[in-house]
Amino acid sequence: MKNLHRLVNISTFLFYLCNILILSALIIFTISYSFNQKEIISSKLIIIILLISLILKLVYWQLIKSKIIKYKKIEKTNFLILMFLILTVALPLYMIMQEPSLIVNELVAKISFILIIVFAIFGIYIERYLFIIQTKNFLNLHTKEKKI
């Protein structure tokens, strides 16, 4: 039971750490882009932060999934993970990498980056829902195994 709580605590820590990294990096990038202060935080640093947080997320998803023997609705889980990856990682990475070659008005670019933050928040909300479901299932399966 002690290992179970440790696993849940580690995955919870990784969950919040990655989400804070993603949101803070995107917000700082958007603010610095809005005020034409791109020297504060470069786009390459944002890309590195997003990729590191993606790797950490993959680690904690594997921690949770490796301990769950039977998990129902695996298709729904995979779809939610895909939605999270698109909204929170792929879309911001694409916009940040394409930012130097954007041929749009400054106002449109600023609104686009604000929308990226909104999509990232929505993706994090999806992942939070998925994380809560997986943690509950993990705890329920473990308590059922212990009763048997």
Tell me the radius of gyration: 18 Å
**Can you give the helix content as a percent range?**
over 70%
Q: How many structural domains does the protein architecture include?
A: 1
Any low-confidence stretches, pLDDT <50, length ≥5?
Answer: none
Could you give the count of β-strands?
0
Instruction: Output mean pLDDT.
Output: 81
Share in β-strands? under 5%
- How far is the first residue's CA from the last residue's CA? 15 Å
Task: Characterize the largest beta sheet: strand count, sense, and whether it forms a barrel.
Answer: none
Q: Characterize the overall form.
A: elongated
Q: What structural class results from the helix and strand content?
A: mainly alpha
Order of helices and strands: HHHH
